[in-house]
TrEMBL record:
Gene of this entry: SIRT7
UniProt source species: Equus caballus (Horse)
EC number: 2.3.1.286
Reaction catalysed by this enzyme: N(6)-acetyl-L-lysyl-[protein] + NAD(+) + H2O = 2''-O-acetyl-ADP-D-ribose + nicotinamide + L-lysyl-[protein]
Disordered as annotated region, ranges: 1-28, 321-349
Name listed for the protein in its UniProt record: protein acetyllysine N-acetyltransferase
């Protein structure tokens, strides 16, 4: 036995005492939990004394219960009554007309109509993972801008929306025809890779998902800059990372828009902000259809032949055809683009949903919807 140490038998005895205490603590936790599930009037005097003696456990269990209920509420999809929804949309339309500087914030919920999963909905990525279920990867080459995306593009065209700030990286705002200067894609864009060795950074828009080989803190795509030869990287900002790229994140424009905004409209988010001036509970596409009808505006249909990504895209160079295995976008679904898999058709530049809970903090200048 080492000086000042314990003998083997003493260590075993100490371990038995530790395990006994842990089991007693677990049993006390189970007892307190059973009592808390009873109505206060149904608890015996002895059970009341046990709760009084177990204040820390009671606090811990009540905190767990609140967190479970909060998570459950976040996953609930609650729809307003149709008449109530129409009334709210009329109020929303008035706010859109009267806004001097309207900024739209969009979350994953605006893309579920394009078969892109959200995060916290009943079938969201995080929800399924928390339930121990697998999450299948969606074929994003089949995704197209939704009615909501096209409505936002038209509202910007009509100068009713000044800027769009999105946490989505699916590229659907860009593909809806919304100008690059009017979008801040804070989490990046899956169709864009950049060379950070060039000054300014050189951007390559592709017609396929460039994130095939990338992950958290690992952003090289396997292709090289056509000018300097440096490794290209994706633009995605993962959880735990800080986005520093100028484009497509466009943080400067997002910050300026937030400072100028007198009205903010949040769409497709599970945010639960009690300070919101107006909350609409309904599918984004349904709400936007009602809104555009109320404003007397037509929603332009999406056309792959007019998708801006094809005129913006940089073709792969010879030898790069095998640098990815993701399916490429095509102008026509029936007809693949000519040439290599990554090359878009050359042409002259031509030109859903989920729960749209409007939530953000209200300040003196800003109306949040």
């Amino acid at each position: 036995m080492a000086a000042g140490g314990l003998s083997r038998s003493e260590r075993k005895a100490a371990e038995r005492v530790r395990r006994l205490r842990e089991e007693q603590q677990r049993e006390r936790l189970r007892q307190v939990s059973r009592i808390l599930r009873k109505a206060a009037a149904e608890r015996s005097a002895e059970e009341g004394r046990l709760l009084a003696e177990s204040e820390d456990l009671v606090t811990e269990l009540q905190g767990r219960s609140r967190r479970r209920e909060g998570l459950k509420r976040r996953q609930e999809e609650v729809c307003d009554d149709p008449e109530e929804l129409r009334r709210k949309v009329r109020e929303l339309a008035g706010a859109v007309r009267n806004a001097k500087y309207l900024v739209v914030y969009t979350g994953a919920g605006i893309s579920t109509a394009a078969s892109i999963p959200d995060y916290r909905g009943p079938n969201g990525v995080w929800t399924l993972l928390q339930k121990g279920r697998s999450v299948s990867a969606a074929d994003l080459s089949e995704a197209e801008p939704t009615l909501t995306h096209m409505s936002i593009a038209r509202l910007h065209e009509q100068k009713l929306v000044q800027h769009v700030v999105s946490q989505n990286c699916d590229g659907l705002h860009l593909r809806s025809g919304l100008p690059r200067t009017a979008i801040s894609e804070l989490h990046g864009n899956m169709y864009i890779e950049v060379c950070t060795a060039c000054t300014p950074n050189r951007e390559y828009v592709r017609v396929f998902d460039v994130t095939e080989r990338t992950a958290l803190h690992r952003h090289q795509t396997g292709r090289a800059c056509h000018k300097c030869g440096a490794q290209l990287r994706d633009t995605i900002v993962h959880f735990g990372e800080r986005g520093t790229l100028g484009q497509p994140l466009n943080w400067e424009a997002a910050t300026q828009a937030a400072s100028k905004a007198d009205t903010i409209l949040c769409l497709g988010s599970s945010l639960k902000d009690d300070w919101a001036a107006l909350k609409l509970h309904g599918k984004c596409d349904d709400v936007m259809q009602l809104l555009m009808d109320e404003l007397g505006l037509e929603i332009p249909p999406y056309s792959r032949w007019q998708d801006p990504i094809f005129s913006l895209a940089t073709p792969l160079r010879a030898g790069e055809e095998g640098s990815h295995s993701r399916k490429s976008l095509c102008r026509s679904r029936e007809e693949p683009p000519p040439g290599d898999r990554g090359s878009p058709l050359s042409s002259a530049p031509v030109l859903g949903g989920w729960f749209g809970r409007g939530c953000a903090k209200r300040t003196k200048r800003k109306k949040v919807l």
